[in-house]
């Protein structure tokens, strides 16, 4: 338990350090609808705004960063060799290898070498005029001559002012879920550790249930829970809806790439409040050994293999848009026939142009 707490403290401190490193203005990638700011350090997404809006960005101050090749604390041996919490990808400066900031299609391609993991990461962001969407493609190349299991998490996190008590809800096609097996930090937890449940009603320590779509208004707590994405879907999604501003932010991704979404519910009651929507190859932010030992959970793999001297690829999109005031709960997000269709529980829907499918 002490080691876990120490790892969490290290993560918080490292996040502050990373923010200090990326405090300088990042690279802006814009079309006629949205502007994405990308930091050179780790290729971290630090801001996303609509061109015709009030400047509200849903992304938390720590940004959307890539946890690779590691999600959580490294082993003692890895740490001794310099491997940081959440892997080295978010600590390496990425070089611009291609950029096109004019014309109907805007592209930014970044690349970095991960010397500890002996991998090369290439990341391409693409915006197309008329679309409220960022398309993200990543390739990871191994320099090793053996196959290896990898840890890969898109650490997507929302924060203030988009995230607010009683005003923001998160939706996903979650099925089977599990609360993280141990206490993640010093703030009191509210959920029953290592307990399984069906999304979104999680068991609480007082014998009740909590709807973890919502940010609680009556108390502060810190918990982690991971959900298996609906195995009948080829594409999964996770969204965050601000009920007051009527703004919707979300991701669509291939379930085969990211079969899990981990919810980091850092409900501190102050400016540190954060809600992670972390889609990943594994359910929890734990080391490689624990991930491999875990085996499949709910019949779904908890790791991905990177073959020897080979390259694997992931794709997803990120979107940000206004929605009708009636929107309260997102039931579905579909990418098909050149459109992204968002369906609310009210029966209303919004359709966004989306010319790139995957």
Largest sheet: 8 strands, antiparallel
Q: What is the CATH architecture term? A: Distorted Sandwich
CATH class: Mainly Beta
CATH fold group: Beta-galactosidase, Chain A, domain 5
Classify the secondary structure makeup into a structural class: mainly beta
Question: Which regions are unreliable across 5 or more consecutive residues at pLDDT < 50?
Answer: 1-24
Number of helices: 3
- Please indicate the count of domains: 1
State Rg: 19 Å
| Average residue-wise pLDDT | 92
> Roughly what fraction of the amino acids lie in strands?
35-45%
First and last CA, distance: 42 Å
The shape is globular
Helix content: under 10%
Could you give the count of β-strands?
Answer: 26
Sequence of secondary-structure elements:
HEEEEHEEEEEEEEEEEEEEEEEHEEEEE
Structure explained in plain terms:
The protein is 9% helix and 44% strand. It is mostly beta strands and 358 residues long. It has one domain (2-325): Beta-galactosidase, Chain A, domain 5 (Distorted Sandwich). It starts with a helix and ends in a 5-residue tail after the last strand.
């Amino acid at each position: 338990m002490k080691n876990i707490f120490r790892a969490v403290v290290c993560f918080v401190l490292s996040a502050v350090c990373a923010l200090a490193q990326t405090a300088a203005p990042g690279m802006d990638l814009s079309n006629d609808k949205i502007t994405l700011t990308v930091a050179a350090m780790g290729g971290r997404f630090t801001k996303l705004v609509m061109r015709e809006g009030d400047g509200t960005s849903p992304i938390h101050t720590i940004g959307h960063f890539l946890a690779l090749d590691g999600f959580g604390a490294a082993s003692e041996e890895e740490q001794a060799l310099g491997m940081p919490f959440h892997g080295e990808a978010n600590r390496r400066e990425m070089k611009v290898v291609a950029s096109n900031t004019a014309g109907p299609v805007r592209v930014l391609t970044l690349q970095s070498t991960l010397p500890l993991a002996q991998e090369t990461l290439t990341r391409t962001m693409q915006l197309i005029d008329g679309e409220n969407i960022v398309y993200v493609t990543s390739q990871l190349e191994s320099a090793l001559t053996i196959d290896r299991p990898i840890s890969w998490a898109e650490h997507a996190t929302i924060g203030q002012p988009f995230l607010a008590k009683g005003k923001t809800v998160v939706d996903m096609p979650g099925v089977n879920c599990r609360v993280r097996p141990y206490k993640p930090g010093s703030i009191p937890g509210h959920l029953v550790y290592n307990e399984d449940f069906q999304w979104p009603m999680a068991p609480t320590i007082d014998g009740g249930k909590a709807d973890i779509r919502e940010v609680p208004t009556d108390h502060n707590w810190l918990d982690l829970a991971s959900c298996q994405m609906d195995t009948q879907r080829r594409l999964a999604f996770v969204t965050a809806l601000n009920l007051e501003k009527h703004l919707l932010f979300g991701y669509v991704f291939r379930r085969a790439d990211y079969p899990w979404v981990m919810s980091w519910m850092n409900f501190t009651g102050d400016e540190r409040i954060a809600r992670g929507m972390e889609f990943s190859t594994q359910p929890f932010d734990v080391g490689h050994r624990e991930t491999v030992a875990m085996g499949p959970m709910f019949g779904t793999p908890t790791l991905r293999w990177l073959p020897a001297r080979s390259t694997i690829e992931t794709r997803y999109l990120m979107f940000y848009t206004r929605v009708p005031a009636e929107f309260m709960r997102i039931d579905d997000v579909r990418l098909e026939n050149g459109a992204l269709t968002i369906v609310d529980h009210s029966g209303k829907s919004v359709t966004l142009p989306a010319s790139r499918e995957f």
